[in-house]
Design goal:
The protein has about 350 residues and is an alpha/beta fold. Helices cover about 35% and strands about 15% of the residues. Strand 10 and strand 11 form a beta hairpin. Bound molecules: iron/sulfur cluster.
């Protein structure tokens, strides 16, 4: 029903007007606060935008006192959800456990994405997480260690067993977001990881976004170039609600455009400005107008707008339906690709 209504509204109003009306109703005030509590990651995944990040931004963490202040101010502002993942692995923060408990006590819905390499030391904090995304690619040791270099398959697999033993997956919205490549063996993937999650959200591995001369550019990693699906760039009908729905804060307090803005180079202000001022930032408003007018410059080459062919989409739907019928695991593969 929702999808049908959306189709009608898009037809009547067109994308720009639809985004304007929808965001006015739904996102007059963002409900999601994204906070990069750390800048450091212990993995070097070839598909990650970190490959293209400025070296100076690859290491660091936000001080605990600052995090506490942001969370308290954020609650007063009206945020409901806290997401602590953008450019890094959040469990590397030495105060991860405290931060999750503190945030839960303030009433946030906690959303974490982790590569699962540090689960034993993060267990206490993970008990306060409502939505837990596990980031693993690879359907066996070899493919896992290629995509999650230099993490160790056996260690991560064992960590996920520890997670299951300590936090029942039925009590948590626990899932994997899988960026699939041409070579991904979905059956083996589901068989390997299914027991640790409730579902697996399947998507396509996209080129990484990088900031270049004021705009977002999409870049394939040549080391895995042959593994990406072939995409074409959209020429119209651009929809992205990130600048409307979230305020995104880097580990050093800079405000980012969205979770793909790894270099935090836009003039979007600083967390010290306060949330109201951030919301009224001139560049943020310009960005929104670009979507209303459907005349994108900043985001024109975002990987979000790289789409696979209809044939690839149909084949993916078919394959996923087929695999789900085979009941390989109690977890299901989910595929809802929005073009
Ligand atoms: S279109 Fe891409 S770069 Fe622009 S705000 Fe959305 S996710 Fe970020």
């Amino acid at each position: 029903m929702k999808a049908f209504l959306k189709k009608i509204l898009l037809k009547v109003f067109g994308y720009g007007k639809y985004i304007q009306i929808y965001s006015f109703i739904k996102y007059r005030k963002p409900k999601v606060l994204r906070l990069d509590i750390a800048a450091t990651c212990n993995a070097q995944c070839p598909m990650c935008p970190r490959e293209h990040m400025e070296k100076s931004r690859l290491v660091g963490k936000m001080p605990l006192d600052q995090i506490k202040k942001i969370l308290i101010d954020g609650k007063k502002f009206g945020f409901q959800t806290l997401k602590v993942y953008i450019t890094s692995e959040p469990t590397v923060h030495p105060d991860f456990n405290f931060i999750m408990k503190f945030s839960k006590q303030l009433g946030y819905i906690n959303h974490v994405s982790t590569n699962a390499s540090l689960i034993p030391r993060a267990l206490e904090g993970l008990k306060y997480v409502d939505n837990l995304q596990i980031s693993v690619e690879g359907w066996d040791k070899e493919s896992y260690e290629k995509f999650r270099y230099p993490l160790n398959f056996d260690k991560v697999y064992n960590n996920l067993k520890i997670l299951n033993q300590n936090i029942d997956k039925k009590n948590q919205n626990r899932y994997i977001h899988l960026p699939m490549t041409k070579n991904t063996d979905l059956r083996k993937f589901l068989k390997l990881w299914g027991e640790f999650v409730n579902f697996i959200k399947v998507d396509y591995m996209q080129p990484a976004n990088l900031f270049s001369k004021g705009i977002m550019k999409s870049e394939y990693n040549p080391k895995i170039k042959d593994e990406y699906y072939n995409f074409t760039r959209k020429e119209k009908d651009f929809a992205c609600f990130d600048p409307f729905a979230e305020i995104v804060v880097a580990y050093d307090g800079k405000i980012m455009l969205c979770c793909l803005d790894f270099n935090a180079k836009y003039n979007l202000g600083n967390i010290n400005d306060g949330f109201e001022e951030i919301l009224n930032n001139r560049f943020r408003k310009t960005m929104k107008k670009q979507f209303y007018n459907q005349k994108l410059s900043t985001c024109r080459d975002c990987s979000m707008f790289y789409v696979p062919s209809k044939e690839v989409l149909q084949n993916t739907y078919f394959l996923i339906n087929q695999i789900n019928k085979e009941k390989i695991s109690d977890a299901k593969l989910l595929f809802r690709y929005i073009q």
